[in-house]
Each structure stands twice: as structure tokens, then as C-alpha cells.
Amino acid sequence: MNHRFLSTVGLAAMVAVSAGCSSSKSAVNTSESSLVITDTAPDTASVPVWAPKKHSFNPSRTRHHDLLHTKLRLRFDWEKQHVLGLAELTLKPYFYPQQQLVLDAKGFDIHSIHLMKGFDGTPLKYAYDGMKLTVELGRTFTRDEKYVIEINYTAKPNELAAGGSDAITDDKGLYFINPLGTEPDKPRQIWTQGETEASSAWFPTIDSPNERMTQDVYLTVEKNFTTLSNGTFVYSRQNPDGTKTDYWKMEQPHAPYLAMVAIGEFAVVKDKWRDKEVNYYVEPAYAPTAKKIFGHTPEMMEFFSKKLGVDFPWAKYAQVVVRDFVSGAMENTTASVFMEDLQLTERELIDKNWDGIIAHELFHQWFGDYVTTESWANLPLNESFANYSEFLWSEHKYGADEAAYLQMEELSQYLAEAETKREPMIRYRYGNREEMFDSHSYAKGGRVLHMLRKYVGDDAFFTSLNHYLTKHKFSDVEIAELRMAFEDVTGEDMMWFFDQWFMNAGHPELRVTHTYENGQLSLQVEQQQDTVYAPVYRLPLKVGVWLNGKRTDYPIEISKAIQTFQFPVAAQPQAVVFDSEQQLLGTIDHAKSDEELIYQYSNVPEMGARYEALTKLEDKLQSPDVRNVMQAALKDDFWYIRSLAVNALVSLEAEEAAAYANEIKQLATSDKKSSVRADAILALAAWGGKDLVPLYEQAMQDSSYQVTAAGILGYAGTGAADTKIKLAHFDKEKNEDVVLSLAAYYAVQGGMEKNDWFVRQVKQARGSGLYYLLQSYGAFLAGNEQANTPEAINLLGDLAMNHNLYYIRLGAYQALGVMSDRQEVKELQEKIKQNEKDERLLNLYSR
């Protein structure tokens, strides 16, 4: 599962700020690829706000039965949004004799249950409470006896109470998209999302990650639809009533939460890895670009297969893009599902690359599907590996700087969460299993695996992963089994590493100082984390020392709260870089002189070290030497460093900035990275100047949408008399970057003539783009009272009441707030609050 949602790089955050307008006591955290709503109300308790919470113990589910095989025959009532199902389950007692079977079945109508012998069935007694189905088997079965039960049922997932998490925003299991065909710009689709325990919303099962089954799925649908499910396609049979039945067979066992179906009018773009089918299911309009979006998949399969020494273990691999998906993506066995943001045009592909999320779900086919966590408490055994695969692929395909940037982003994401939440990565004491889908399981987990790799070395790391996968294939595992795999390979007791990183909360918070005297470099390290909640860490790492242009790396191991290390150095070193491999998960406060930082930028090749130097120098631009460093950084080989330098120089006054204007203009027009061009345009816009109008006009015609959007904002900032006319040329554009840039301007300068434009954009926008658009729409409504019409109220009310993404409901509710002086809006907001089931929003609304 990939829990991250796209926000427009750089521009979306700026647009949201410029649009203003949120009255809620909540914050929207945005990184390059995430949108998370977090409660920021102050905590007045005596313990830190981030202290681990006390919850009851959550063990793995006890296995009374072993679910061996599931056969499903499914039809669909689009009008009622019901699943008409016939399920045939093959089971046997797990160990002890059993005469009763308990299944998960959420919100069903149960029509009949039979114990089958061939084609003959004996009716069975059962009890059903709407969630659990208890079947009396009629006699006692032993672990050597298989039995088959047939359940005729109707599933009504759309009538279930809403649930979910930041990662998975809804848990109805199966979704009908535009079921009646009333939305003209949206295809009719059905798709499923089983994680964590939502497969039981569309078929009866033992909905637990420590269960495994093979399956047959027969889908009866209209002839115009294409279907997808796990395993291989066997046949399609035409039916007398004008429908067809597609048969999909899964011959290798997997967990029930990984079962899937997708139904829609998809174009199937065929690809191949070795002798296996690799297919991409997209809307027909995106068939021409499907291979450019997903085309690295076969190369990834080869890379991961060789790296792990375990070939891709399934019969085929398919990837399908669906509308209104409730997460970023989901790694169903042999068939991953992705949010619609992945569908890009040729022009959009200039700015965006989805390799990370594609690699993430693919790596789950080994870590999560082939070997599965036995309980949600052990979720990092799935998600930390999928997270780390993004680093592995980036390192392989795009180089060390890109991989380092990705890990830096992951560290920032975890540290942001750690401001309000610190829990063990493996946590058996959680309030709700959905809480496990957080930056601890993903971002922290990936960084911890990188530290493990650095500690044991590449050969031992990948040999251990091979051992782990080979030993535990088609089974469920807990963290101890990963530890023992590393111990089996390395011969070393690894309890210390796994205990401090997986089983304890928090992270090291280090204060580092260094001094030089009489041929000795002294380095003092103080662990400042609160040891009531976190351990004193054992940290093997390296210290890089530069003298006369030569680098020496000294290995050290920190094991005490305060520790001093000494190194023989012939003269005052030019730079000292603590954790020179940039691999530590934690915070490092290391004071350095400006001279050391200037040297560090120019001479230390690691991207993290260059980043550290620039960020510590960016508020010292009064120094000519620092400005020279920033100027040099404008030519750095890595795009992010160039952008960092551009954004640092923005703080200069326009007169001071003149010395760098030509170079930044050069970046704005010629940099090979579109995001750098966009940043350079926005920097120039911050300084202003009438001579920049031609540059903005050129930018508005750029091949990159990001650059076009920056050009729009730049031109709007000039106050030119023809601004509205110029911008109106883009009013029919659907690209998110362009729409958000227009919305930022129209929110305050558009006037009533832009009311229809806002309404149209809100109706067709989606995902995080819609959230940011709602911020601008709220500002527009606040400034244009005539726009506060019943249509606007109904539009926002429908989104706030019914949208499947909780943060969209929040954004619409916030936008309604600008009209809260009207009685009908007050009544509507009360109705929204009464209708809302999501605890996150209820907590916010209550304030």
C-alpha cells in the first residue's frame, strides 16, 4: 500500500497560502508527494505530546480453521450498488477439531449456506450479526478433513459505516464509481480495496493477514467491460442474456486482503518481462502514454529479481488505474491498483514521474504478498521494504543524489510526524490497526533498513533478504523472523539493532561539537533524546575529516549518553562531517563555522552534506563568500540543489539580487529540470520588474505545465492591465498546476465573471488538487458575496457530505465556513457534522 497523495510540487503549497482561508484548527502537511491532515491542537498534559499512547495488546488472530481455497461467482447490481455473490470456501481445521466456523462478512444479506459434497448441498444453521457469520458445521471435523461450504449472499458495501485512516481513506472494500452513468466526464467502474480487513465487505472470508488461500473468480458483467483479478485469465464466456463471464484463476496462495477485482472500460496495453505478461490497464485516452508511465516495470522486475536472488514469484503482473481510489495505490497479488493521478498526458510527463509508487507496489509482490506480515502490529515488514525499494530503484536508475534526496524527504516526513507521535515501529499496542499506516511504518522503516544495510554490508544484506524470502515464502511472519534471517547469514546476534530500532519509540537526537588542538581532533557526541521514552542508542557510523583536500573516514561506535572521540590530525581540518555516509535516522545538531560550511559545499560530494551547508548558510547572505557559494550552487549538477540556491537568493532585496538576475533568468529559460525553471520564474517574480514581462509570456508557452503555471503567477504579479485577458486563454485548461495558479489569482482578482469557472473546476477537480482548489474557492466566495448562491452552497454541501476522501470533505466544510452567517449554511454544517462518521473530522468539527 502506498499512502501518499500527490500535491503540486512547490506551486500547490504557494497557491494554498496565497488563497488564504481556513478557519479550522488543523494543518495540511504537504511534501512533494503527500497530503496529510493533522490535528494541531496544543496538548496540556505533563507528558510530551508525542509520548507513546497506552493501548491494550493486539495479538495476531488465532487460527481455528485454515482457509484453503475461495471460489467466487459474482454479479453486480449497479443501481443498488450491491454484489450478488455465490462463495464456495474450502477449509479444514487448523489443528484442533472444530464443529463451528466463524467468518468475516460485513453488511451482507445471507440467503443460504450449504455444506457441499460434490454438487449436493446440505443446509447449515448459522447466526449472523451483520459483521460475523457463525456457521454450525453439523458435525466435528479434524485437521485431516477438508470441507466445502457454499454461501449465497448479497453484499452491500456502500451501506457500511465509513472508516479508514490517513493512508486508506475509506474501508468499504468494494466501490461502484458513477454507477448510474450520471456523471458525464467519469467512467463507470467497480474496484476493490481490501487492506486492512475490508475484503470481507464483498465476500465472506477469514479476513486476517495470517490466512492464505488460492482462488477462482468468475465475474459476470456487461460485454463492454474489461475485467481484472488476481492470477491468470482463463476464459471469457458469452451468456444468453447479453452479459459475459470472465474467469480468473489464482493458483498460488495469498492473504484474503490481497484479493481484488477491477471492472471498467479499460484499454489494456501489453508489455512483457521474460516470459510473463505485464499489462497496464488505463482509460482509453491514456493508452498512448501508458508505456511511458509504467514502462520501467519490466526493468524493475529484472532489477529486483536479481538483487533479491528471488525471481518475481507470480504468474503475471498487471497495473490498473481507477477513479476515486481511496489510497495512493494497493499491491494486490499480481494486480496492483493505482489512483488516477498516474494517468498523464505527454506534456504532463515532462514534470512528473511515478517510478517511486510503481516500484513500491511492485516490491510488495515479494514483501507483503509472497511473505506476509502475520499481524498488523508487524506492518513494517510489508511497508518499510516497499518504501526502501523506492530508494533502491532511484539509486540504480537515477544515481546517488536522487536517492539521497528521496531519503532526506523520508526523514523529514518521519520527523514531522514525530513532533506529535512517537511509537515503536513494531507495535502490538495500538488503538486501531489503521494507525499502523503512518510515517513510522513507511518513512522511518525505510531509513532503518538502510542503516541495517550499511551496518552489515551489501552482500550480507541482500543474502539475508534472500534467506528470509526463501524460508518464509507463502507464509506469514513477525519481526523476529527477519532478525533471525540476518543472524543466520551474518553469524551475529542482531537483537540490539532490532530492539532499539523496531521495538522502541523515538530516534536519536544528537548534539555534536568538534575542536582541534595539538594534533588531535576531538569530537564530542551527546545523546539528548528523552530516555524515559527512547533508549540510549548504539550507533555505528563514520566521521569524515578533510585536510589539505584529502578525505579520511573514521569509523566510530556511539554507545553512551555522552562520548568523546579523538583522531590524530596533522593540522586544523577544513571540514568535519559527522555521519559522513548520511545514513542515520535522527537529528544532528553540529555547529560549524561559515568557513567549514563553505568548504563542505565545494568539496564533500554527498548530496546531504551539500544540502546541510547551503541550508545553514542561507540566512548569512550578507557575506560575499556565502553569496559566492549560492551562486556556485546555481550550477550544481543536481536539480534540487539548484532550486535550493534559487530559493535562498529570493530573500535578497531586489537591488542586491540584480547581481544574480541574469543567471536566474538563464535557469528560468534553459534549465533542463522544469521544477527549477518554475522556481527561478517565481524568484524573479518576487523581485519584480517590468522587464520580466517577456519572460513570463515565454514561460506561459513553455512545454512544462509547472513552468506555465509559474509564468501565470509571475504575469499576474505585474499588475498589467491585460492580465485578465492573458489568463483567460488558460481558462479551459484542466492541468492541476495551471488551474491552481489561475485559482490563486481569481480568488482575489477574478470578480463575479469567474464564478462559473470556479464551479466548473470544483466539479471536475480531484484528489489533493481539489483540496487546494477549495481553499481558493472559499477565498473567492468570501470576496464575492453575489457568488454565495444556493448552487454554491449545494455544491460544497454535497462534497462535505458525500465525497469519499475525508480531506475533501474537510476542505468543502471549510469553504462553507465563509458563508456561516447564513442560517441555511449553519443548518447544513450541523447536518454535515451529524452525518460524518470519520473521527478525525468529528474531532476537528467539534472545535
From TrEMBL:
<dbReference type="InterPro" id="IPR011989">
    <property type="entry name" value="ARM-like"/>
</dbReference>
<dbReference type="GO" id="GO:0016285">
    <property type="term" value="F:alanyl aminopeptidase activity"/>
</dbReference>
<dbReference type="GO" id="GO:0016020">
    <property type="term" value="C:membrane"/>
</dbReference>
<dbReference type="GO" id="GO:0005737">
    <property type="term" value="C:cytoplasm"/>
</dbReference>
<dbReference type="GO" id="GO:0043171">
    <property type="term" value="P:peptide catabolic process"/>
</dbReference>
<dbReference type="Pfam" id="PF01433">
    <property type="entry name" value="Peptidase_M1"/>
</dbReference>
<dbReference type="InterPro" id="IPR050344">
    <property type="entry name" value="Peptidase_M1_aminopeptidases"/>
</dbReference>
<protein>
    <recommendedName>
        <fullName>Aminopeptidase N</fullName>
        <ecNumber>3.4.11.2</ecNumber>
    </recommendedName>
</protein>
<dbReference type="GO" id="GO:0070006">
    <property type="term" value="F:metalloaminopeptidase activity"/>
</dbReference>
<comment type="similarity">
    <text>Belongs to the peptidase M1 family.</text>
</comment>
<keyword id="KW-0732">Signal</keyword>
<dbReference type="InterPro" id="IPR042097">
    <property type="entry name" value="Aminopeptidase_N-like_N_sf"/>
</dbReference>
<dbReference type="GO" id="GO:0006508">
    <property type="term" value="P:proteolysis"/>
</dbReference>
<dbReference type="InterPro" id="IPR014782">
    <property type="entry name" value="Peptidase_M1_dom"/>
</dbReference>
<feature type="domain" description="Aminopeptidase N-like N-terminal">
    <location>
        <begin position="69"/>
        <end position="258"/>
    </location>
</feature>
<dbReference type="InterPro" id="IPR001930">
    <property type="entry name" value="Peptidase_M1"/>
</dbReference>
<dbReference type="InterPro" id="IPR016024">
    <property type="entry name" value="ARM-type_fold"/>
</dbReference>
<feature type="domain" description="Peptidase M1 membrane alanine aminopeptidase">
    <location>
        <begin position="296"/>
        <end position="501"/>
    </location>
</feature>
<dbReference type="InterPro" id="IPR027268">
    <property type="entry name" value="Peptidase_M4/M1_CTD_sf"/>
</dbReference>
<feature type="signal peptide">
    <location>
        <begin position="1"/>
        <end position="27"/>
    </location>
</feature>
<dbReference type="InterPro" id="IPR045357">
    <property type="entry name" value="Aminopeptidase_N-like_N"/>
</dbReference>
<keyword id="KW-0031">Aminopeptidase</keyword>
<keyword id="KW-0378">Hydrolase</keyword>
<dbReference type="Pfam" id="PF17900">
    <property type="entry name" value="Peptidase_M1_N"/>
</dbReference>
<dbReference type="GO" id="GO:0005615">
    <property type="term" value="C:extracellular space"/>
</dbReference>
<dbReference type="GO" id="GO:0042277">
    <property type="term" value="F:peptide binding"/>
</dbReference>
<dbReference type="GO" id="GO:0008270">
    <property type="term" value="F:zinc ion binding"/>
</dbReference>
<keyword id="KW-0862">Zinc</keyword>
<keyword id="KW-0645">Protease</keyword>
<keyword id="KW-0482">Metalloprotease</keyword>
<keyword id="KW-0479">Metal-binding</keyword>
